[in-house]
Every structure is written in structure tokens, then in C-alpha cells.
């Protein structure tokens, strides 16, 4: 166990070293964060023209007229942002992840990373990356929908245990799929061979992978718990707290995605030398 933990610590140390020497590898993650911030402000301004012409009708149809007026519109922001982020991740997030993996490969080889080349390479295999992400996202979504439905407890402690189980299973799923994108970008594999490669690689480095994926992901759990208490917190403080909350979630998500993607890619590159 200590040896596996040391491997993870060494990978993190090497990853931060790459960040220090090649700070431009952070650009893809920062761009994703910037897009998320723009989406948040668009949703926040949805009841006001000119955005009301675009976003007002679907909000009115699916949630009702009152959610276009203060303060009810603020209650809808987390849900609308989650929906918007699914589309932004599918359209841009997976593309930027592929670009980041390519840039990390170059940095790991001692070559100055080039974001233009990284994006070009990622765009060329975008459909493969998208399918891999959709499979992983679909499995995680099923877990978070199915477990609470199967184990429906009214007791708060029991429901929190189910939520914790969902998180642990989602971490395992992410760990199994995390190397599929590096397999596509670095080894130029097709979709299903890349997924098989990812599962096989995860099995050979299971505990280090679980540490690299799990620890950053667990940091997000307090945000999920607070999200359920957000209406109460808004009523006790100020309604605009929801914007601060979602904004903080964006910052944490960018850091989490950057650390997980970068560290697992570095581990992948390290172990390939010994294969």
C-alpha cells in the first residue's frame, strides 16, 4: 500500500513539475472554465433581454413562468447550469481534454507543448473521444439515478450513505475509463480497443489510479451536499448566493479535472516505458 501511495505521490510531483516548466498545458482546462463562467452568466441573465428571447420560452414551458422572475429564477440556476454543462462538455470539454493529453505527452517528452497542434490532433479524433465520454457519462448517470431509486430511504443518514456509494462507484467507473482518451491520443487506438486498453491499464495500476482519481473527486462531495441545502442557505443569507456557489463549483471542477487528467496521463506515459 505504501509503495502504491508513493507511486501516486511521485506522479503528482512530476505533474506539478510539468505545470511549472510548461504552464501552457493548463490552457485547455482554463478555456473550459472560461466557457462555464460564460454559461453561468448567460443563465443568470436569462430573464433579461436579449437572452430572454432565446432562453425564456424553454424555461416557461418546462418550469413555468414564475422561474423567469426574481428570486425564483435563481433557484433554477444550478439545474440549468448542469444541463448546459453536459452540452459544453460534449462539444468542447472532450476536445480540450484530448488537446491537454497531447500537450502533456509533448511536455513529458521534453518538447514544448503547442496548443494549436494539440487541438488539431484532438479534433481529428473528436468522434472517438466523444463516444468514450458518452459511455462513461452514461454509466455514471445510471448509477446516480438507479441506486437512489432502488434504495429509497427517507432517513437522512441512509440517503447520504446511498449518495456516498454512488460517488464511490462513479470513481471506479472513471478510473476504468480514464486511460481511454490517452490510448486514443497517444497510441492512436480505435474506440473499443482504447476502452479495453484503459481497463487493462487500470487493472495493472489499480491503487495508484484509484488514488489519483479518487482523492480529487472526493473534494467535490461537500459541494454536492451543500447543493441540497442551497434553497435553505439562500433564504437565510441572500438569493444571489447561488451564483457564488455555482462559480465556486466551476473553480473546483477546473482544478479537479486538471489534476485528474494530467496525473493519470503522466502515470500512463511513465508505465508505457516499462511495457
Sum this structure up briefly.
The chain has 275 residues and is mainly alpha-helical. It has one domain (2-272). It contains 14 helices and no strands.
Describe the structure.
With 275 residues, the protein is mostly helical. 82% of the residues lie in helices and 0% in strands. The protein has one domain. The protein has 14 helices and no strands. Helix 2 (27-44) packs antiparallel against helix 5 (77-108) and helix 2 runs antiparallel to helix 14. It is globular. The two termini are 22 Å apart.
Q: What series of H and E elements makes up the topology?
A: HHHHHHHHHHHHHH
Strand content bin: under 5%
Average per-residue pLDDT, rounded, comes to: 90
Largest sheet: none
Q: With helices defined by DSSP (H or I, 4 residues minimum), what is the helix count?
A: 14
Q: What is the SS-derived class?
A: mainly alpha
Can you give the helix content as a percent range?
over 70%
Distance between the termini: 22 Å
Shape: globular
Low-confidence stretches: none
As for the number of domains, it is 1
* Rg result: 20 Å
Instruction: Give me the count of strands.
Output: 0
Keywords:
single chain; 275 residues; mainly alpha; 82% helix; globular
Lay out the secondary structure.
Blueprint: H1 2-21, H2 27-44, H3 51-62, H4 72-75, H5 77-108, H6 115-124, H7 126-150, H8 156-177, H9 180-187, H10 191-204, H11 206-218, H12 221-228, H13 230-236, H14 241-272
Helix pairs in contact: 1-11, 1-14, 2-5, 2-14, 5-6, 5-7, 5-9, 5-14, 7-8, 8-11, 9-10, 11-14
